[in-house]
Design brief:
single chain, alpha/beta, five-stranded parallel beta sheet, cytoplasm
């Protein structure tokens, strides 16, 4: 799930260790609470004009990446989408706001994660405005753990504009090295992560799964 490195050795200070353990329990509790929200989550109150797509435009394409973002971060998500597509030629890509309007938001989330090779989590200050963004994160991480070909597919990104402070990043995402847009090594990290061979492998698996689903419904 993303580019991972071993965590630094914890300080021997027992109080710090106890704090980390409490944090872990807190986030474990949040996972259970977020999972319980699934029946209550509704479509966002509004979408940006011209962003929402039709089923026909989405379902036949396996994307290189999808950007999950806060409801008020559509413009920033589009900026990152354009950056990856135009500067690094990583295309096609999609942002979550472009998912079809006619489906339930949870169905769209599943389609977005399973219909793309990489899931980018846009970490801005708005990420923590509500439970939905964290729910997205835990869903992606669970999907990556349950499907071997999805390992290393979750990519947190701290953009130039209004990045989420590192100390506020949810516990479950702290084990993943986030892409830092202001880092001198950003371009090399992007090129190393988004490998064409990985995309083709995942696209083939996606096609086989879709074919199997169609046969089962005959």
């Amino acid at each position: 799930m993303g580019s991972t490195n071993s965590k630094p050795t914890l300080s021997p200070d027992s109080s710090k260790k106890a704090k980390n353990m409490r944090t872990g329990r807190r986030d474990s509790k949040q996972v259970n609470e977020l999972c319980g929200l699934s029946a209550e989550i509704r479509e966002p109150a509004s979408r940006s004009p011209g962003v929402c797509s039709s089923n026909e435009n989405i379902e036949g394409v396996f994307y290189k990446f999808v950007i999950l973002h806060a409801e008020n971060d559509v413009d920033e998500a589009i900026r990152i989408q354009n950056l990856l597509q135009n500067k690094f030629c990583i295309k096609p890509g999609i942002i979550f706001a472009e998912m079809p309007c006619g489906k339930h938001i949870l169905e769209n989330l599943g389609d977005a994660v399973n219909g793309s090779a990489w899931t980018i989590i846009l970490l801005t200050e708005k990420f923590l405005n509500g439970p939905w963004c964290e729910f997205q994160s835990y869903t992606c991480l669970a999907n990556a753990l349950n499907k071997q070909h999805k390992y290393n597919s979750v990519i947190p990104v701290r953009p130039l504009n209004n990045p989420l402070p590192r100390e506020k990043i949810p516990f479950a995402l702290q084990a993943i090295n986030a892409l830092e847009e202001d880092s001198p090594g950003f371009a090399k990290q992007v090129e190393r992560i988004f490998q064409e061979s990985t995309y083709r492998q995942q696209r083939e698996i996606w096609r086989r799964e879709r074919m199997k689903e169609k046969l089962e419904h005959l």
